[in-house]
Write the structure tokens for this entry.
Amino acid sequence: MNRKHIDLNLTNEILHNYNNGLYDNVVPVKVDEIPKIDGDNIIDRENITSWSGSYSEVCDNLKKINKNLNIARLGSALGQISQSDGKEVITLSAYELKMLGVQLYPYVSYGILNGGSASSYVDSRKNTALNPDLMKVYDILFKKTSKKAAGQAKGITAAFTNPDGSGGPGFLELKMRALLIENLRYQTTITKENEIFTGDSTEKKAASLYPMFQMTSVYTDEQIKAELEEYKNSPLLKDLIKASGVDITGVLTGVQPMLAAFSHSGVGKPKQIFTNAYGRDGEMLPIPGGHGQNFIILSEIYRYLYNEAGKKFIYLSNVDNLGNLPDPVSIALTALSGVEASFEFAFKTPVDIKGGILIRDQNGNLNCADIGPAVSREEVDRQEASGKKILYNCATGLFNLQYITENLDHIVKNLPMRFSDQEKDAGAYSQAEQVTWEIIGMIDRPLILGVNKYQRYLAAKLLLESFMTSGLLLDEPDFPSHEDPAKDFRGTARNLYAGLKENLNEIYGMRLEGGRWSPVSVGGIIEGFK
């Protein structure tokens, strides 16, 4: 049996709990309704022009971040104070929200869920299931690229393909570059004169959006650790590390154990460990137990960030999304509202087949129902067929760290354990997983931010999706297209590619030269801040 990387104790504990009915209360989430943007709990982040709230509540919420907040400057230099029903209301424009968000960078730490390998990413069955005609278009490119990515940690595979056909930088490397650029933005644009927070500005410069943290797995940790050493001399990072004084490669890391796959539901009960991986009798299949395990694996890091590093918020996102970098407006909205967490959602497109959707569940709560483990694909199709526009989870959460640290035990105990059947190259089996974003249903006041998918959710769950985002072969006559935008892969790919180019230019400090994306110099980046 292949037991490498598998935590058999945890696997057997989950198996025992399942066969003894301890997960019987974990039922599929029932969709009571598909909610719409309402301007209250669900905000149109993409088109926001201003935000208003109680001035006293805003001051209270910001004082929880820094008790030495200069309240006078908040009212005079940032926002407009007015009277409404006898109460003071503060209104901030989109620009003022952005300015406030940048000033809050020192209280934010950015984290990624970096545990997975590229196995599902390059799985031929999963990719073909997206669209068989699309697979035919990309067949040669798929075979060539999948061989390079197979067996690698997903985060260090090429995040996109250059127009000349060469692989671009890895997901993790690009994210580090963007964080360093935002560190420089803070250091360059925030001075003591326009800060609304008091304190030592030199110390805050070094702390801005740092340290970064991640969850790897026992399968990928050594690969990622070796890659981080190489990144110290990366052309994308080296000069930015020197200019900002921040060694972004010093990532706080928690390592997730692997579980064994279980028997397919078609085999019947009792459920057993799957021992026929790739048709080899007696061979187990190691798989992760879902990103929801971060609340166990990263618990000590969360406590350190809150109790010792002075962080008040943490970003949590998937490594394979090139759009989910810190957004100062979202940071400001989350801080001003005093909510426990905010989450990004965008309207669903044809490529969004693996992940979660925003629903109001049978208990009347906003929730995230993962397609497959929590809500059936048939139910999603039924809702779409009825004309509902579905908000799709961008897998980006900004959490109030006080809430997380005070409720870790509760979250770990109550986050649902879900079992889903899989049919992949490795065979027919089931897997157990906890989905991070089902925490939305456990939060009293989640703030949902409706974002532009093509700016904030450039995800690559499948290799074909990465090819689309890279703008490859879009003019091929056999590229699947449709007059219905919800089914138009060519139109979706063009929008994804436009979003990639915008992000590479504006967020990652890259320029297209000779068929490849190359890094802009530090001087050029700083000049762009002016």
